[in-house]
């Protein structure tokens, strides 16, 4: 139900509501487990309802909820002619395996999920995507939530990752993009020169991320509800460097090649884009946690096109900054920081740079040896790095390669995933074999270790 007129509410009553709301928040009676719970809704639940509207209204909703969390006047909030998410709690999380692994806590089996698990390899996904088109699927919370949940229902994955695209941030940066079936997404007004950047780049400090991408945050909240606690929800973003490559990628220009040339010719302009993108990514990820994301991942999918020296100039500093500012920003909002993963694809040479970072998990591509990664990142949880080519093999081969991978990584501080992502022609049954074998192998290893420990204790 929409908020109604204040005509029947006395000032004294509103003042008492404001006092109660602030007191409750102050004494810690309301907890925010990465959700958009509202103290405003708590004091006036009959006057709020879950909103499904346009992006502008969604932005206003998020802003109001942030004010509520900071104990602004209830009267001020009730004055707004918008609908907001009323008081609600997300379903209790029944499977926290992923979060425990990310935090370095003991796990009885290795958690497993796969990059791009909500994708075209699933017939049920294709049925919806082909009917609606990808852009509509990204932009419609109900559809995005349904697609996100599909692999959880099918395989019991230990994580859901929101069905979206890293390119939704481009318009927020001032770059329009297009997606057509069978064609790689491209920028309509791709940057070519510093003059293009100065003309089109939107200053991150002026961006209202809630208004610009409200539909994404609504998708997050809706998905959390739809998951019913079966798995935690991961929110993600492209890294500044990867976003930068797409700001230069047009119909006629390869953005990866153009990006490498751009940093040589226009290093200051490149840094301007990267710094701006970093600020937007921080806002975006914080908002996703506010909306309900329980873990975050930053994808630097094209970091590997950089030399080691250039990676440490044009990618690494921004990746490190994002983890620091997201976690400090959440704390400032009274929200416990969620685990964060970084995926510096193709940059095994610089893994050690993340050991002292605020990322909890480092995701590895197919070319990184697990033993080397453990040596470089002794305090981090590792994620990865199954070679997708084995999914085309027979069941026995898939099981053998999967089991060997688990043995190389070990069963603790480890999250099983692919070194890249599911491909559209992967057989769904073979994906199921991979998931099943992760669980069998890791459970058997843990049981054997427990039995050995018990036997050692008896003979001690």
Characterise this structure.
The protein is built from 20 helices and 9 strands. It has 460 residues and is α/β, with parallel strands linked by helices. The strands form 2 sheets. The protein has a 7-stranded parallel β-sheet with strand order 1-4-5-6-7-8-9. A two-stranded antiparallel ribbon has the order 2-3. Helix 19 crosses helix 20. It is globular, with a radius of gyration of 23 Å. The N and C termini lie far apart (67 Å). 46% of the residues are buried.
- The ordered H/E elements are HHHHHHHHEHEEHHHEHHHEHHEEHEHEH
- Tally of strands: 9
Radius of gyration: 23 Å
Overall spatial form: globular
Question: Helical region count?
Answer: 20
Strand proportion: 5-15%
Mean pLDDT: 84
- Name the strands of the widest sheet in spatial order: 1-4-5-6-7-8-9
Instruction: Give the biggest beta sheet.
Output: 7 strands, parallel
What would you call the structural class? alpha/beta
Low-confidence spans:
1-88
**Which percent range fits the helix content?**
40-55%
User: What is the CA-CA span between the terminal residues?
Assistant: 67 Å
């Amino acid at each position: 139900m929409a908020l109604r007129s204040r005509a029947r509410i006395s000032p004294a009553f509103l003042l008492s509501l404001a006092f109660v709301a602030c007191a409750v928040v102050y004494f810690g009676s309301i907890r925010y487990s990465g959700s958009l719970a509202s103290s405003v809704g708590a004091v006036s639940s009959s006057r709020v309802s879950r909103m499904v509207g346009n992006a502008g209204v969604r932005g206003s909703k998020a802003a109001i909820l942030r004010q509520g969390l900071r104990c602004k006047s209830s009267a001020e909030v009730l004055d707004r002619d918008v609908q907001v998410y009323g008081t609600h709690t997300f379903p209790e999380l029944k499977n926290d395996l992923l979060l425990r692994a990310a935090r370095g806590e003991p796990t009885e089996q290795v958690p497993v999920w796969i990059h791009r698990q909500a994708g075209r390899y699933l017939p049920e996904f294709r049925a919806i995507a082909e009917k609606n088109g990808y852009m509509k699927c990204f932009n419609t919370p109900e559809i995005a939530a349904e697609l996100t949940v599909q692999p959880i229902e099918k395989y019991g994955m230990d994580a859901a990752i929101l069905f979206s695209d890293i390119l939704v941030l481009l318009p927020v940066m001032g770059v329009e993009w297009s997606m057509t079936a069978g064609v790689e997404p491209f920028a309509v007004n791709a940057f070519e020169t510093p003059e293009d950047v100065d003309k089109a780049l939107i200053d991150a400090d002026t961006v209202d991320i809630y208004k610009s991408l409200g539909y994404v945050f609504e998708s997050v909240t809706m998905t959390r509800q739809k998951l019913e606690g079966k798995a935690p929800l991961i929110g993600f973003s492209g890294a500044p460097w990867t976003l930068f490559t797409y700001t230069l990628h047009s119909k006629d220009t390869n953005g990866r090649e153009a990006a490498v040339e751009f940093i040589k010719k226009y290093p200051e302009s490149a840094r301007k884009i990267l710094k701006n993108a970093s600020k937007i990514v921080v806002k975006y990820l914080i908002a996703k946690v506010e909306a309900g994301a329980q873990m975050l991942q930053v994808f630097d999918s094209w970091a590997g096109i950089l030399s080691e020296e250039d990676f440490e100039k044009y990618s690494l500093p921004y990746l490190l900054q994002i983890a620091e500012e997201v976690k400090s920003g959440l704390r400032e909002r009274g929200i416990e920081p969620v685990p964060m993963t970084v995926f510096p694809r193709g940059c095994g040479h610089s893994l050690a740079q993340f050991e002292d970072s605020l990322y909890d998990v480092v995701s590895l591509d197919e070319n990184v040896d697990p033993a080397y990664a453990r040596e470089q990142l002794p305090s981090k949880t590792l994620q990865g790095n199954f070679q997708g080519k084995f999914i085309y093999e027979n069941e026995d081969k898939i099981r053998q390669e999967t089991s060997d991978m688990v043995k190389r990584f070990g069963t603790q501080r480890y999250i099983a995933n692919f070194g890249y992502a599911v491909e559209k022609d992967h057989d769904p049954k073979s994906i199921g074999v991979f998931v099943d074998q992760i669980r069998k192998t890791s459970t058997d290893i843990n049981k054997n270790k427990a039995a050995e420990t018990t036997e050692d204790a008896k003979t001690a």
